[in-house]
Structures are given as C-alpha cells and as structure tokens.
Design brief:
mainly alpha; 177 residues; transit peptide
Amino acid sequence: MIVKEMGFDPLSSFFCSALATVVAVDKSLWKEKMELYRSFGWSEDDVVSAFKRQPEVMTLSKDKIVRMMDIFVKESGLGLSIVSRYPKLLLLSLEKTIIPRYSVISVLMSRELLNGDVNFDTICHLKEEKFLEKYVIKYQVKVPQVMQAYQSKMRTVLPMSRRNKGEPKHYCQPKTD
C-alpha cells in the first residue's frame, strides 16, 4: 500500500486522509500536480513532505495551487519555505483569509509594530474575531491604515448582497445610525 510506504502510521488520522486522497486523485492527475508543485521550486521530497503534513494538498485544483503559490512565492515575498513548513495554508481561502491578513500584517510590520518573529501560519489560523482584536482593533487608532488594509481587501471579496452602498457590512465598522 502506497500510503504505508510513504511512512504514514496506520493508526493516525493522517493515514485516513492520505488514503482517501490517494484513492480520490488518479495517477495522471497526481503526476501533473507533482510537476506543478515542482515548477514552483519544490523538490519531490518537498511535495511528499507537504503531503505527509497535509494530504489534502494533492486534492486542490491546479488553478488554486497556481494562485496560492503565486501569492506566497511571487507577490507576498513569504516564499516557498512557509508553504512547505505549513502546507495547510494552501487549504485556506486566498480572498477571505490570506490576502486580508497579509495586508494587515504588512502594514504593521512596515511600522515596526510587531515583534520580530511573526508566524503567518498562526495568524492565518486565528479565529476572525481574535485576529481582528489582536491585529486590527488594537492598532486602528495608532495606524488607521490597518483597518483600511483589512477592509479594502475584504471589500473585493464580499458578495453584493452583503454590501450596503458599496461598503462591506462588518462588525468592527462604526455604526452610522
């Protein structure tokens, strides 16, 4: 069995995820996705390592892989290493999580308001309320751009039904009654 050969413990929850992934993704698509990850600079070992940490990375559409890797490698400057260390980042929503949070963190880092080590994986996996409290609301008076960065990125992804006169409805936005 291929999953066992990759070193998965049959008693771990990852074994079931890995097995389900191997069954769901046919051999030719698996090879295409391996090549796609390698086209971004990963070695075969990097892809296998990411799969061992988060088997679902091989179930993502090729389009999502390209968009996510482009953001991490080309646009954000975060690089391949963060994705290989934390492959579950690839499973998050680019529009609803990655871009808004990266925008906020970038503003705060440019103002040197965050202590050196910022773990982007941890930041992306905070509950929305906790992220807003810790990184947006805490700094919004001192650095108004933080709220602007967060809202401008969110505005681009909210469906029209959630907008009021072109503005997103968001609980941290001041009421205008």
